[in-house]
Specification:
Elements lengths: L9 H30 L11 H17 L4 H26 L4
Helix pairs in contact: 1-3, 2-3
């Protein structure tokens, strides 16, 4: 993939953006596999949210964003939404695998 500063057309830029977005979606899918795997280690539905883990994760994501030239406040907001969505999905999966849903 051409680096941003070496792109010679808008089409080349858009192609790179599409490829990156595809990689992001693939990574989110892999993340879901780990979220589901984590449900095996949760003894109860109440253990799924793990607020202390979320509280530790968000500042780390903001720091990673800043280290990579990305807006840390936006990254923290984005990951907060992602994490809570994954928690909801893990609850559904946890119930499904135990025949509750």
């Amino acid at each position: 993939m051409t680096t941003p500063e070496n792109c010679s057309s808008l089409l080349e830029v858009r192609d790179a953006i599409d490829r990156i977005d595809h990689e992001i979606i693939q990574a989110l899918g892999r993340r879901m596999e780990y979220v589901r795997a984590a449900s095996r280690f949760k003894a109860s539905e109440a253990a799924i949210p793990a607020p202390e883990r979320v509280a530790a994760m968000l500042p780390a994501r903001a720091r990673w964003a800043e280290e990579n030239g990305f807006d840390p406040a936006f990254a923290e907001t984005l990951f907060s939404q992602l994490i809570h969505w994954y928690i909801d999905e893990q609850v559904k999966y946890w119930r499904q695998t135990r025949g509750i849903a």
